[in-house]
C-alpha cells in the first residue's frame, strides 16, 4: 500500500497516548484539526508503572539497559520504548511505506504540510530511514528540503516526540526484548538506520506530558563517570559539532 499526499490520501499518523490521559487526547484532537492531511490513529501507550516485575522482565532487558547506560531503567522509560515498539509493529503489520509518529505532548504548526510532503516522497525507499521533526540534535552535512527548510544528516539526537519512519526502518527496529531508551538515536543509527532531521525543526514539545520520553532529559538523571569515559569519543564529537554551530536546540 502506498500513501501519498493526494486529495484522497493522508499521511498515516500514530499518536502515542496513555489511555487514562483523556485531557491529552482532547488536546491532540484539537491540534490535529489544524492538520486535515493527517490520517490519525491513537496508540494506547504502555504504562511501565503498571507492569509487574515479571511483565517488565519479559518485555524489556533491564540488565542490558544498565550495562549500556550505567543506570537502572525507570518504569516510564520502559513504557516509552515499548510504546514506540507498538508503532513499529503496526507499520509492519499494515505494510505502510512510512508513518508519522507523535507523542501527545507536542505543539503542532500549520506550516508542516509542505515539508512533510517532501519527506513522504523520500521515505518510499528500501533504505531504513528516520527523519526527526524535533530539535536537540547534532548534525553534519545538510541539503535543501523545501522552502526555508533543510535536511540535516544527524550524528546524535535525543527526544522522540515527532518523527517520520519508513517500513524498512520499522522492520529493523522491532526487538523482542529491547534494552534502549526510545530516543537512543545513536544506537539506532549504528544499527543501520539513515538518520536525518528537518532544519530548523518543525515541532516542539510541551515538556509536561505523561510519557517519560528519555533518560537524557529527566531531572536528576546525571551520567556516571563510567558512561562518560566509555562514550568519550562520541561526546567529543558532539562538543565539536556544537562548537561549529551544528547543533539544533529543542
Q: Can you describe what's shown?
A:
The structure is a single chain. This protein is α/β, with parallel strands linked by helices and 250 residues long. It has one domain (11-248): Spore Coat Polysaccharide Biosynthesis Protein SpsA, Chain A (Alpha-Beta Complex). Helices cover 34% and strands 24% of the residues. It is built from nine helices and eleven strands. It has helices at residues 22-32, 53-59, 62-69, 75-93, 113-122, 167-173, 185-190, 225-230, 232-243; strands spanning 11-17, 38-44, 98-103, 106-107, 129-132, 137-146, 149-157, 162-166, 194-199, 204-205, 247-248. Strands 2-1-3-8-5-9-7-6-11 form a nine-stranded mixed sheet, sandwiched between helices. The chain has a two-stranded antiparallel sheet with strand order 4-10. α4 crosses α6. The longest helix is centred in the middle third of the chain and has 19 residues, at 75-93. The chain is globular and about 45 Å long. Residues 1-8 and 209-220 have low confidence and may be disordered.
Mean pLDDT: 90
CATH topology: Spore Coat Polysaccharide Biosynthesis Protein SpsA, Chain A
Low-confidence stretches: 1-8, 209-220
Report on the biggest sheet.
Answer: 9 strands, mixed
Strand ordering within the main sheet: 2-1-3-8-5-9-7-6-11
Amino acid at each position: 500500500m502506498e500513501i501519498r499526499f493526494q486529495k484522497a490520501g493522508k499521511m498515516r499518523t500514530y499518536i502515542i497516548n496513555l489511555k487514562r490521559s483523556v485531557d491529552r487526547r482532547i488536546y491532540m484532537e484539537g491540534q490535529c484539526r489544524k492538520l486535515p492531511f493527517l490520517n490519525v490513529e491513537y496508540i494506547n501507550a504502555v504504562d511501565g508503572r503498571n507492569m509487574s516485575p515479571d511483565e517488565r522482565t519479559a518485555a524489556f532487558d533491564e540488565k542490558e539497559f544498565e550495562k549500556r547506560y550505567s543506570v537502572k531503567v525507570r518504569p516510564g522509560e520502559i513504557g516509552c520504548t515499548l510504546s514506540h515498539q507498538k508503532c513499529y509493529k503496526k507499520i509492519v503489520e499494515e505494510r505502510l511505506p512510512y508513518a508519522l509518529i507523535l507523542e501527545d505532548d507536542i505543539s503542532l504548526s500549520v506550516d508542516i504540510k509542505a515539508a512533510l510532503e517532501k519527506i513522504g516522497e523520500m521515505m518510499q525507499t528500501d533504505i531504513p530511514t528516520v527523519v526527526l521533526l524535533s530539535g536537540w540534535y547534532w548534525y553534519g552535512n545538510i541539503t535543501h528540503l523545501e522552502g526555508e527548510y533543510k535536511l540535516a544528516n544527524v550524528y546524535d539526537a535525543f527526544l522522540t516526540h515527532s518523527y517520520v519512519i519508513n517500513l524498512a526502518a520499522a522492520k529493523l527496529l522491532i526487538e523482542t526484548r529491547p534494552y534502549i531508551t526510545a530516543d537512543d538515536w545513536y544506537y539506532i543509527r549504528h544499527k543501520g538506520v539513515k538518520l536525518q532531521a528537518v532544519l530548523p525543526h518543525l515541532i516542539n514539545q510541551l515538556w509536561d506530558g505523561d510519557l517519560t520520553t528519555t533518560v537524557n532529559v529527566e531531572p536528576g538523571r546525571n551520567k556516571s563517570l563510567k558512561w562518560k569515559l566509555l562514550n568519550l569519543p562520541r561526546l567529543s564529537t558532539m562538543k565539536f559539532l556544537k562548537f561549529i554551530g551544528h547543533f539544533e536546540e529543542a
